[in-house]
């Protein structure tokens, strides 16, 4: 009986985590939509604008990005394509591996990132500091 209770607690905890995640993504999407971005778009833009590539340079290999964001390779490729089409990032060949692709934030992307960063951080603060049930659950 104790084992079943412990197992039930794990299942409930997992569901709480998924609920907070889903609600937070929805709130992020709502806040960022007027700026032409979704939560995943911002996540990639944030990494490119404020992160440091493994080699310390200004551009990231797509593989590096995929290790840090929770998207499939094909979804990430489509997202990078959209950001490139919108002038927020550029893609180029990887000098050290011709099969690789590097992605770099553009000045326009950096500017948009700076505009929406406070919105994203405010959503995170609201959704993640109040607890999983505070926003309607």
Short précis:
With 137 residues, the chain is of the alpha+beta class. Helices cover 63% and strands 12% of the residues.
Topology pattern, helix = H, strand = E: HHEHHEEH
What is the structural class? Answer: alpha+beta
The share of residues in helices is 55-70%
Please describe the biggest sheet, giving its number of strands, its sense, and whether it closes into a barrel: 3 strands, antiparallel
What topology, given as strand order, has the largest sheet?
Answer: 1-3-2
Q: How many runs of DSSP E, i.e. beta strands?
A: 3
Word description of this protein:
By secondary structure, this protein is of the alpha+beta class. Helix content is 63%, strand content 12%. The protein has a 3-stranded antiparallel β-sheet with strand order 1-3-2. The relative contact order is 0.16.
Defining traits:
single chain; 137 residues; alpha+beta; 3-stranded antiparallel beta sheet; 5 helices; 3 strands; 63% helix; globular
Topology:
Layout: H1 2-32, H2 39-50, E1 60-61, H3 62-68, H4 73-85, E2 89-94, E3 97-105, H5 107-129
Antiparallel strand pairs: 1-3, 2-3
Helix pairs in contact: 1-5, 2-5
